[in-house]
Amino acid sequence: MRRARLKLEDTPMFYHVYNRVAGEPGYLPFGPAEKEYFVRLLHELNTFFAVKVVAYQIMSNHFHLVIHASEEIPKPEEVCKRYERYYQGKRKLDPSDPYCEILAARMRDISWYMHDLQQRFSSWFNRTRPGLLSTITRSRT
Predict the structure, then answer these.
(1) pTM for this one?
(2) Helix, strand, coil % (nearest 5) of the chain?
(3) What domain range includes position 35?
(4) In the beta sheet, which residues pair with residue 53?
């Protein structure tokens, strides 16, 4: 069972986070293409979040990250800049928008970072590997 993550909101911190994939024994979803996409995704998320991935290791069925979260929550202007860069100028955000304050808190939060990382990778994986899960299910019977 996963233990709750300890997070200090007003202190710069380094975190070691990891995740193992669900699946049958021998299920190794991280091949070269998946690892490449995962690293690209790390870089994309770093343009949005105010956390830095210091180190990473991607194994065949799990990954480890060392993440640094600064103590400062980004200012509204920085939030808008990161938001627009992340969405490649397709979305705009005004510093006076109340959503800006919500995003600022999320940008420093490693739980939100991990949520977005895992959700985006899982969506991509399931979309690009549609027959993989049915193959695994058939091999069990």
Answers:
(1) 0.80
(2) 45, 15, 35
(3) 13-115
(4) 67
Residue 62 placed within a domain: yes
Which structure tokens are listed for 34? 């998946």
End-to-end CA distance of the chain: 28
Q: Can you list the residues of the chain whose pLDDT is less than 50? A: 136-138, 140
Contact assessment for residue 17 and residue 64, using Cβ atoms and an 8 Å cutoff: yes
Look over the chain and give the mean of its residue pLDDT values, rounded to a whole number.
85
Taken as a whole, the chain contains a residue count of 141
- Give the pLDDT of residue 8: 60
88 CB-near residues (< 8 Å, 6+ apart): none
Q: How crowded is residue 48: how many other Cβ atoms within 10 Å of its Cβ?
A: 19
| CATH number, domain with residue 68 | 3.30.70
Q: Which residue has the tokens 């019977």?
A: 141
What's the Rg (C-alpha) of the chain?
17
How many domains is the chain built from?
Answer: 1
